[in-house]
Amino acid sequence: MKTSRVISVNLCQQFKLPNKAFTAALLLTLLATTLLSFACSPQMKAESENSEKRPQRIVSLTPSTTEILDGVGAFPRVVAVSDYCKYPSGVERLPRVGGWQNTNIERIIALRPDLVVFTDAQTPFVKNRFDALGIRTVAVKSRTLDDALAAISEIGRATGNNQQAQKLLNETRAQLEDVRTGTQNLPRPRVLCVVDRAPGTL
After folding, report:
1. Which fold has domain 58-178?
2. Where are the domains of the chain?
3. Which residues of 169-200 are buried (b: 16+ CB within 10 A; e: fewer)?
4. For the CA atoms of the chain, what is the radius of gyration?
5. What confidence tens digit (pLDDT) does each residue in 128-176 have?
């Protein structure tokens, strides 16, 4: 404060300004500049870090994660998908890297991914191997409807597509609400959904 006082006095003498008025103006200017730097720096830093960490070569190991990547706007950066991915349009041109339990790790390494996305059901088969190679992964839960909604947010964050992810979430929740409203008075039969089975096991 003593140094600032000396500077302000010298400047006042040089420009022949009233000392008190100049000191007040100087302090207000310094305060405004300091507050502005505190307000802007975190945002600028966050944007810079987000840009630096934004993955450019993504591998998706399940159909659901591939469709979420498309929904949040990250599909153009996908370089490979699982054997079972059929959507969105354009997926047929991408390299295939296996299924749940037969993922072709060597082929994935050759594609130089900076992010591999899969569901938690695949974690025991692939996560440790990718971790050992220093490849970033995102494993999303996939057991409930809430898990599916959370997966949209998680993949949006991981790819740097937060705004698109939030838009997709809003649209999905609105569609779910339409379904609930339209079916709330309908009979509710008990349903069995068989995803996969071996011959003679049902």
Report:
1. Rossmann fold (3.40.50)
2. 58-178
3. beeeeeeeeeeeeeeeeeeeeeeeeeeeeeee
4. 28
5. 999 999 999 999 999 999 999 999 999 999 999 999 999 999 999 999 9
